[in-house]
Fold each of these.
Amino acid sequence: MDNNKEKKAAIEALLFHYGEPINVGKMAKMVGFKEDECHSLIKELSSDLNDNPASGLAIMENGDEVELATKASLSWVLKKLIEEEFKEELTPAALETAAIVAYLGPVTRATIDYIRGVNSTFILRNLLIRGLVSRSLQSGKKNVYEYRVSFDFLKHLGISRLEDLPEYQKYKNILKDFESFEEKQEEGAPAPAEEEL
């Protein structure tokens, strides 16, 4: 990938999909570019977005972390969107995401995205704003957050503990089996037979 435009496009795509602040060093490893080159490409991409009146996006930088965000001048669009979201009941996508967090939590956004097959950043923000989920840094990781449901979520459902959710233990056991299978795959062990999964 020698084309500068393609490299900027790759960084833009990564930032869009990642949906949260990401360390430039981590980004460099993910896209296979040198860290200095990533810094240079980010500056160019930021300038491109700022100079383009047809784009509603901007690059936010905080130390060695960057994030793709909405331009400050268009914050009114997000305000309207959030206001509309709060007027309505939770969408099926939000309910699906909340259920994943409830049964699998603490769970990372990457795992939620993998299960749902789509980027869940906006839905998780919505659930955070509503107070139905909380997030915290994953132990031993610098930029990875784990999500879990809140006490307000339990109150909303009228239960006193997660174990009271329908078939809670069954789904927890499925997760353990899945995690065990993933670990074996990473270690290079042969895939188990279908009936073992």
Amino acid sequence: MAVKLSDHFTYKKLFKAVIAPILMMVFISIYSIVDGVFVSNFVGGIPFASLNLIFPLIMIIGAIGFMFGAGGSALVAMKLGEGKQEEANKIFSGIVYFTIIVAVIISAVCYFFVPKLALLLGATPEMLPYAITYGRILILGEVAFMLQNLFQTFCMVAEKPNLGFILSVIAGVTNMALDALFILVFKWGIAGAGIATITAQGVSALIAVIYFSKNNSSLLRLTKPNFKAKNIIKAMTNGSSEFLGNISASLVGIVFNIQLLKYAGESGVIAYGILMYLGFIFNAVFIGYSIGTAPIVGFNYGAKNQLELKNILKKSCFLTILTGGIMAIVGFLLSKPLSAVFVAYSADLLSFTTNAMKIFAFSFIFSGINIFTSSFFTALNNGLISAFVSILRTLVFQMLCVFVLPIFLQINGIWLSAILSEILAFIICFICIIKNKTKYGY
């Protein structure tokens, strides 16, 4: 039996509601690192470091899709909870079309600035040509990337979580197959990795657009769009935490790379890239969970069902903290084999990365509840608190820690900064939840 946004959620039903978006995000994170695996093992260490260096720039641009997806879905879910389905569809359509327009403009502008941006990010002469090639190719695919991010959340609002998972599987299989073809067979190197990625994103986005353009059994359909400024602005403010969070994480990634080049050279950049890839997979569980629960929260907020809001919050806090603890243990115990997937060819790099992963893994204990809290307030249409939590977590605390801790602890201070920043963010999340309890009645 299908899960409805209006249901009362037991642990069993909650699991059923979030399993598809969790699997979707885990699969997306796995196929997202395929470029790194192929480039690291079959193209070389310098191209792999170049890919890691330029990737934060791509994520900064693509954060617009996350913003409209998270913020727009919260607004649309609230309208559905109020019983205004026609208005919800018009807002949904307006957000999709507006995202396409913005993506085209930004991609066209950024394409020409990739060389200067790569230098600004710290690319060495050896890394620069690879960074430019990969960066420009992925920027050409930003429209598809933004739409892919957008539809990830709207599939849940449409009560079609399985569609989101299917789209991620299609994109993943396409990317992996083309990576093998373009890199191993055609010998296109890092360019092949980029072309494989944007092709996979394009296939996923196109299928989603076609599905929602036609009559379907979901709650949403692309119709005559509503381009009212207040709805666009509301979607942007609602999703500001996801937007700023992704930008902040990318900026922090840039700072991490700069610090690592200082303390460990290109080996440090390679190791950090591996940690980010592995972090994508582990945190994908929490992101998927948040995507799955956000429309439920938004719907019940619109329906003024405070008891269900309290139920979702209580269960989610318990589940994310428990899962985070399990992930920390798994990440610590499997640090060597996970690192070996990328750098088995170098004993020194493997040892260096394994040590980093053993420290970094403990950040998962708190990252889940922090990710959920930000998403929870986005779903309540409170973009201000959500953005506040997200910026402190992904920018302020991490930036502070990554500059201060290495002064005393050298390279290990960089890895420990992830743990300390998550602990500080957890304290802020706890305060925000308690202070707003009366306002929202959860």
Amino acid sequence: MNVHFIAIGGAAMHNLALALHHQGHTVTGSDDAIHDPSRSRLEAAGLLPDSMGWHPDRLHSGIDNVILGMHAHPDNPELARAQELKLDVVSYPEYLFQAARDKQRVVVGGSHGKTSITAMLLHVMHRIGCTPDFMVGAQLTGFDRMVQITDAPDMLLEGDEYLSSPIDRTPKFHWYRPHLTILTGVAWDHINVFPNPDFYREQFCEYLRKVEPNGTVVWCEEDAELRRAVDKVRPERPDLRWIPYRTPEFTMGDGKLEVHLAGRTTPLKLVGTHNALNLAGAMKLAEAWGVRPTDFLDAVQDFTGAAGRLERVLDAADRRCTVFRDFAHAPSKVQATTQSVRDQFRDRKLIAVLELHTFSSLNPDFLPTYAGALDAADEAWVCYSPSVLEHKRLPPLDEDTVKQAFRREDLHVVPDHNTLSEAVRAGAGDGTVFLLMSSGRFGGVDLIGTIDSALHTGG
């Protein structure tokens, strides 16, 4: 089969390209910019385009599928050529559904915790010798790619609620029609496509309506917005099995977390209250999938998490200084992650650093939803790039607007990543925990290296 990717350089897109290449398909692609790690991985597989930009002449009648990524625009010249040739143009999630049409589909959805739970389930299934096909939103230890498509009978999918492609405004997870699913919670996000909380919540209602007949829904009963969605749809779907879960009993302290489930105490390599909740939900879904709770707990003990999801990236034991990196950007994620690290390291100074990078987080209408999100930190820094605001065609931000939105007068607001780096260097010291949160790259500034250097040079 011949497959062409328009916007092959994305995190999800390049992993699917690698998976199809591994299957033996002929894969081509284009993009206007490709950065590492995508670039290096595509180059190693011989899939890196020989020149950047869009090249309509790469499209021809011999192509079986064109997979269109979100990075492309509706007027993309390659897309226009594909449509002119009447080629089969599909979005990334639509292609995954086609690949999993005859499989049992297990989907992890919700406004937060999706990647962590998907990664946890995949780790457990791999440990017990039942590795499914999968798509997960971060790189995992022990797996070459974030996507795998084989002849396995099941497929585990991370179910994102964002739009499928520039020409397909279907929320991605609506494509997957799960047999088994978990929903972690509903917290308004993506203001550019879901203009109000009610419209956003309705996407989850519609998702629940698309669960396959006699399917299973595991859901967090502690989340009030999710409960509203479940209460609305459950009377419509009496055929479904509805399994609630909640935060289990646990103990934590100085980087150690133990959960008390299934009549036993299980030590974990994870940190944070939210990961105890994630584990409880994942165990319920795994049980519905046929995994005994005791087997799940045995297998999950050495799970260290997904890349960029409360990932411990530096631990200077001699200085009692630890650095975590997290993908958190939505208000509910920022608040949960900050509180979790605070609870885990109560005897250390917590410095939380948040980069506003998404359209929603930089939008003045959405910013007030961050109120209190960083309150658990002893010291809090928020940074953003004026050039990103300009690129997203948003009005400039000022320090007072950001402080008022977060409702924290001592908040440090920095529209300059180099100044942020200097502040982080100054804060590095004994008994400190840094929490670096962003869906971006902090303007390319190496904050982790800055902290490490400061610890070894004394500032």
Amino acid sequence: MTKIVFATGNQGKLREVKKILADLNVDIVSMKEEGIQIDVDENGTTFAENAQIKATAIGAHTDAIVLADDSGLVIDALNGEPGIYSARYLGEDTSYRIKNQNLIDRLEGVPDEKRTAHFVCAIAAALPDGTVLHTEGTIEGIIGYEERGENGFGYDPIFYVPKLGKTTAELTDDEKNAISHRGSALEKMKVLLREYIN
């Protein structure tokens, strides 16, 4: 069976990826499970660059296909912040409860129509032959006024999707995967990977 190493330590992300790629008939493992422990300096200027940097750096340590994503929250009223720094915003070890509250506070007094934001997910797949595949997905929404919902992770509790009337943390896994930025990018990647797996 083809093996895919997914470059993350985030169990929430790994669970999403395994669920979305379940019908590919591949063995998806984390870096830790593959025995790869390296720190990658994500010094790109775009989500796509960072995903490729991560995928190729880890690809040098395995014969498996390596999938890496770089994703983040882009808030229009804050000039695109936190953007590519989403994971490191206010410090990597800062809880998302604090990060979320900080963003809500910074948007105080900003009306709904100007609270627009989107999640972006860029995925790179480094193949053993040196080929790198790229896909990207987005989801549009607005920043809420408080955290809502217990599902998801990261900025999900403050990312409100008007057409659903819920934050992404209030969606079930299946609902979220059907519309999310990561779900969209992974579905596109699945199409590209089928050529190399079958």
